[in-house]
Structures are given as structure tokens and as C-alpha cells.
Specification:
Layout: E1 7-10, E2 22-26, E3 34-37, E4 40-44, E5 48-53, E6 59-64, E7 78-84, E8 87-92, E9 97-101, E10 109-113, E11 130-133, E12 139-142, E13 153-156, E14 167-168
Antiparallel strand pairs: 1-2, 3-4, 4-5, 5-6, 7-8, 8-9, 9-10, 11-12, 12-13, 13-14
Length: 171
């Protein structure tokens, strides 16, 4: 996104530094993440994630309700998002977890970490730096190195739910 101007711009292929972008989303704040899957653009607005149809511009809230919090219908300070088969995954910095939002869901399910519990134990996350999936469906979380975090990459097996232990990869 174009953080200083609170917007997301779309640039044509083979753009140069003099190419003007087309504004497609406004009201984006600092720390927002974007993700593209197919013809959909997903934008993190800190306490909600919205999906935009790049062909028609329709806007739909797909995670959270716009109010930060710890309830199952809320997300809190999402830093990174990823999408698999229209399901949205959010790394929630202030809730210390990764939540999963199925298509049409009004509530998310914690699949990694423990909502509201920060730390470096085998079930805990803190200050996450990124999330990704491999082809087998394992979730990888780049855990932070701040106070109480254990750093490293955490691997959660497919079907994990909040509170399940993760493997910490060597490195």
C-alpha cells in the first residue's frame, strides 16, 4: 500500500518509476498488509480484513467486525494475512495468535497460539513476523524475539487449534 497516503494503488505490468498508479482502496492505515488470490485483493485494516473484487470493486468484510478485541468475532492488530481457498488467516499481534476465517464466517477460530496469552512456550506466540503454508497444509509462523518470545520459525500441523504445541525449526 501507499501508507503515507492511506491507500492501495494498482500499477500496470512493466511500470516504471514515472508510471501513475490507480487508486483502488482508501482509508488504509499504517502497518496494513495486502494479499492477492485470483481476482481478489485482501486488505488488512488492523481490526478487520476486507476483500475487494479486482474486476468489480465489491467490498466485503471477511474477518473481524471493525472493533479490535478478544471475542471470536473480533481480531486485534493484524500484522500479516494469507489466504488459502478463500479462507483468510490473520496473525493477530495483540491477541498473540493466528485465526482462521472460513468464507462467510462471522467468527474466527484460533489455529495457532492461545488468544491473549503471550510467550515462548510450545503453545504460545509473541510478536509474529509472518505466516505461510506449505503444500502439505503445515502453518509456519515467524515468531518474534522480543521479551518472552522464543524467536524462530514455529510449525503447526494441519488441523491444529489454539493451544496445540508447535515444532520449533532449527536455525
Amino acid at each position: 500500500g501507499d501508507e503515507a497516503n492511506n491507500r492501495v494503488l494498482k500499477f500496470p505490468a512493466n511500470s516504471t518509476q514515472s508510471t501513475m498508479g490507480t487508486e483502488i482502496v482508501t482509508g488504509v492505515g499504517a502497518g496494513s498488509d495486502v494479499y492477492i488470490e485470483g481476482n481478489n485483493l485482501y486488505v488488512n485494516f488492523r481490526c478487520e480484513v476486507k476483500r475487494y473484487d479486482l474486476n468489480g470493486g465489491n467490498e466485503v468484510t471477511v474477518a473481524g467486525n471493525g472493533t479490535c478485541g478478544t471475542a471470536s468475532n473480533q481480531i486485534n492488530t493484524v500484522i500479516f494475512i494469507t489466504v488459502r481457498n478463500d479462507t483468510v488467516y490473520c496473525s493477530e499481534s495483540f491477541n498473540h495468535c493466528v485465526s482462521k476465517w472460513a468464507p462467510g464466517a462471522t467468527n474466527g477460530v484460533v489455529i495457532a497460539g492461545v488468544r491473549g496469552v503471550s510467550g515462548g512456550g510450545p503453545t504460545e506466540l509473541r510478536d509474529m513476523r509472518g505466516i505461510a503454508f506449505d503444500d502439505a497444509g503445515n502453518l509456519y509462523v515467524a515468531n518474534g524475539v522480543g521479551s518472552g518470545a522464543n524467536g524462530g520459525i514455529r510449525k503447526f500441523k494441519p488441523g491444529s487449534i489454539g493451544g496445540d504445541s508447535a515444532d520449533t525449526l532449527p536455525g
